[in-house]
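Repro:
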Amino acid sequence: MDKPSHRILVMGVSGSGKSHVGQQLAAALGATFIDGDDHHSPANVAKMASGTPLNDDDRRDWLATLADLFAAHKARNASVVIACSGLKKRYRERLREGDSALRVLYLEGSHALLRERLETRAGHFFKGDSMLASQLADLEPPSSEEAVTISIAKSPREIVACFKAALTPTSRAH
């Protein structure tokens, strides 16, 4: 029997652990991992590095690129996990154009925990509490029908285990 393939978005604001959890989830599923940040234009990276939040226009081509990556993996029946903030519902809808069966893992955390994580992060272009505040202001948390929401207070291993359990259809449970 063929192993099912999945296209998965790991979403949340900066500092939620999207890349770390995404890498672990991809490894656990035998999937390719893609960090959405690697697909930002140089102009977007420069804008964020200067402390200026991105707007919808800045994100348009980036989201199209990520949707195309989901579509390419779907066409090959290949599993992929992409880490991307996916802050607004319309962004997630745009990503879903790459695969209507896209599964979403939303990493939810308190402002204090997110700020603490960002303050200890080295070498990342995301700077400043004002940018975190901007992302939290833009965030449209997904509903339970749209995503599996898991607290970042859990360990990455626990998050991966919880999400993997959510991927398993109940009819196949033993």
